[in-house]
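We were asked to recover a plausible sequence for a given structure. The inputs and outputs are reproduced exactly as logged, with field labels preserved.

PROBLEM: sequence recovery
POSITIONS: 382
GIVEN STRUCTURE:
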C-alpha cells in the first residue's frame, strides 16, 4: 500500500468530523463521538459521555468538572492540592468516575486529586494542558503520568497516520519535531487550527499535500502500512530506530520543561510511568526494556519517579501463577478497577512522603493541614 492509498484509508467522513466538533453531549456513544471533542490548542478534550467498554460487558460513565477535570467523587468538598496530567491511563478509560487511581488515592488520603488526563494524549499534549490549567488554577503538586505510547504521540501531527485506523480522537494535534542527531526539539501547532480546517481532512488533495511527507508515515516500517487494524502502532518493532530515538528525546525535553515550569511556580513535581499489558508482559518475562534511553535519563531526579513495571515485577515475584493469569487480574485493555487500585497503592507511599504537610491520615493530632487550592465546580472544559 503506497502513501496515497494509506492516507485515503484513514481520512474521516464529514459525519465523523461533525461528531468530533460537536460540544453537545448525546446519550448514544456513537453520535457523542464517545466523549472526544475538538480543541484547537490541544487537539481534543473530553465531554460527558458513556461507553460500552467496562468489565464484564458493563457500560462506563464519564463526567467532568467546570475546569475540565474528571468528576471528583471522594472528598470533593475539601481543598485540592494535587493535579494529575496524562493520557487515558491518567484519565482512566474503561472505568467509572469513582474507580480511577486518583479516586482510590483521594479516598485513602482524605483529600481530592484533580484528574486532567485525556484519552489519546501524548506527553506534549499533557504538558500543554498543564500549562493551560496551572496558569489559572495552580496546584501545590503536579503529577505527570506517562504511558508507553505517549513518547511516539509527541511526534504525531495527525494521530490516525500511525494508528492506521479511525478512532474518535484520530485527528490533528499540536506536536513536536525532534532531531535525534542534533538534540533539537521544536514545538509545532495543530495543523487544523479551526473547525473549518478540520473538514479539510476529508479532502484527498489536501491530505496528500499536507501529510505525504509526514515523519510518522515515513518512519513506520512498510509492514505496518498493511496492517491498518490497530494493535501494532505502538510497538518499537514497527518503527524505525531513528523515530524511536526522536520520540524518547522529545519526552526527555518535555520532562525538563515540566521541571522548569513547576520550579518557577514553586510546585512539587512527580513523574509516574505506566504501561499497557504487552509491556508488563515483556517485563515479567525478563525481556530488555525498549525505552532505557528515557528511563536512564530520569533516574536520580530530585523528585519522585515511579515506574510501575517495578511494582508489577515485585508483586509477581511472590506469586505462583502464570504471567497471563496475573495480567488478566488488572487489565481490560486499560487498567480495570483492580488495576487502578494497584497503581494507587503502588505510588501511595511516595506520594504521602512527597506531600508537605502529609495527608490527614498520616498526621498526628495538631499537625497543620494543607493549604487551599483553587475552586472546582461543574460544567465546561479547559
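RECOVERED SEQUENCE:
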Amino acid at each position: 500500500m503506497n502513501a496515497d492509498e494509506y492516507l485515503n484509508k484513514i481520512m474521516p467522513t464529514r459525519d465523523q468530523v461533525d461528531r468530533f466538533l460537536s460540544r453537545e453531549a448525546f446519550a448514544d456513544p456513537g453520535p457523542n463521538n464517545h466523549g472526544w471533542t475538538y480543541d484547537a490548542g490541544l487537539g481534543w478534550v473530553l465531554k460527558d459521555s458513556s461507553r460500552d467498554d467496562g468489565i464484564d460487558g458493563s457500560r462506563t460513565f464519564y463526567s467532568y468538572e467546570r475546569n475540565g477535570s474528571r468528576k471528583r467523587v471522594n472528598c470533593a468538598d475539601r481543598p485540592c492540592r494535587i493535579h494529575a496530567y496524562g493520557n487515558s491511563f491518567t484519565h482512566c478509560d474503561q472505568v467509572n468516575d469513582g474507580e480511577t487511581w486518583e479516586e482510590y488515592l483521594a479516598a485513602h488520603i482524605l483529600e481530592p486529586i484533580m484528574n486532567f488526563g485525556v484519552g489519546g494524549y501524548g506527553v506534549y499534549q499533557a504538558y500543554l494542558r498543564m500549562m493551560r490549567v496551572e496558569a489559572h488554577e495552580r496546584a501545590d503538586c503536579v503529577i505527570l503520568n506517562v504511558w508507553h505510547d505517549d513518547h511516539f504521540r509527541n511526534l504525531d501531527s495527525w494521530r490516525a497516520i500511525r494508528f492506521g485506523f479511525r478512532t474518535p480522537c484520530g485527528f490533528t494535534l499540536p506536536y513536536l519535531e525532534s532531531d535525534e542527531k542534533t538534540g533539537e526539539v521544536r514545538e509545532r501547532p495543530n495543523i487544523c487550527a479551526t473547525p473549518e480546517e478540520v473538514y479539510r481532512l476529508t479532502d484527498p488533495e489536501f491530505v496528500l499535500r499536507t501529510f505525504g511527507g509526514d515523519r510518522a508515515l515515513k518512519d513506520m516500517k512498510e509492514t505496518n502500512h498493511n496492517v491498518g487494524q490497530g494493535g501494532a502502532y505502538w510497538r518499537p518493532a514497527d518503527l524505525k530506530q531513528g523515530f524511536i530515538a526522536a520520540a524518547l528525546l522529545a519526552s526527555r525535553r518535555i520532562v525538563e520543561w515540566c521541571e522548569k515550569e513547576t520550579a518557577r511556580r514553586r510546585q512539587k513535581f512527580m513523574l509516574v510511568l505506566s504501561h499497557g499489558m504487552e509491556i508488563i508482559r515483556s517485563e515479567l518475562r525478563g525481556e530488555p526494556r525498549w525505552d532505557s534511553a528515557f528511563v536512564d535519563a530520569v533516574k536520580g531526579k530530585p523528585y519522585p519517579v515511579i515506574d510501575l513495571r517495578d511494582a508489577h515485577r515485585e508483586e509477581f515475584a511472590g506469586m505462583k501463577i502464570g504471567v497471563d493469569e496475573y495480567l488478566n487480574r488488572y487489565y481490560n485493555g486499560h487498567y480495570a478497577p483492580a488495576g487502578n487500585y494497584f497503581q494507587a497503592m503502588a505510588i501511595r507511599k511516595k506520594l504521602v512522603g512527597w506531600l508537605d504537610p502529609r495527608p490527614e491520615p498520616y498526621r498526628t493530632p495538631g499537625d497543620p493541614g494543607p493549604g487551599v487550592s483553587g475552586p472546582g465546580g461543574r460544567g465546561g472544559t479547559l
